[in-house]
Design brief:
With 256 residues, this protein is α/β, with parallel strands linked by helices. It has a single domain, classed as Vaccinia Virus protein VP39 (Rossmann fold, 3-Layer(aba) Sandwich), CATH 3.40.50.150. Helix content is 38%, strand content 20%. The chain has 8 helices and 7 strands. The chain has a 7-stranded mixed β-sheet, sandwiched between helices. The radius of gyration is 18 Å and the shape is globular. The chain starts with a helix and ends in a 10-residue tail after the last helix.
Amino acid sequence: MKRVFRLLASWFAGLVGLKLSHLFPSPSKFFLLRKLKACLDLSSGMSVGVDVACADFKYRDMFKTQRYVGIDLDRDNLTKGLALRARPDDVGILANLLHLEKVPPFADVLVSTHTIASLPADQQVYAVHVLAGAVLPNGTLFVNIPTTDQGMFLENELRNRFGAVSRTGYGNPVFMKIEDFFAYRTGSKNPLALAAVGLASVLCYLLSFLEELRVFRFHGVYTLFYCRNRRGDETEERFGPIKALSQLCIVSPLSE
């Protein structure tokens, strides 16, 4: 019976394009993942993709770049990701995102989801500037932050660095209550609970499409910045800065 429930949970997860380990019933997360997938699909063929707060490389398969660099503060997560999901040229770096300001730009596409929210409020705007500084000319930045009254100011600042900037508020407060309800339930090992979470994920996935309508995004809890065409002169050097960053602390073949 346990096997049946686990298979059911896996099937529900597959319906929304996720793996069982990704299950987290949240309309706002599904909204963000759709936007992220569209962004990364456009990065196909680019050289270096960087995932800040990559956890255990759980979104590795979404990256279409030639190389993948995962940055995280948890050594165990990086080790697990490198062991289970990494490809031959992938790199895992144990570092704080603010360390990125110590090296030249190296990312053709840089992704940071729900990372800025973990920082103190007075560091969040600065952290976005640090991430933007790690993006190569003509590159892309995809980052979300908690909605604040500095959103317009930050958008204008990013427009000085990128040729195209999209700012989207999302995370309907009512929908967020669903996320809060499940926040402490997705870690359950009970197969029946997993199946219930899987079913809830499908329902939340459908609900997330309502956030495509502007009326459902008023007073959104999060703000997504999708920035393209980083201004500046092209450079051929990409992997050198990664090696420089790796000197801070690394969990990958580069340290061998």
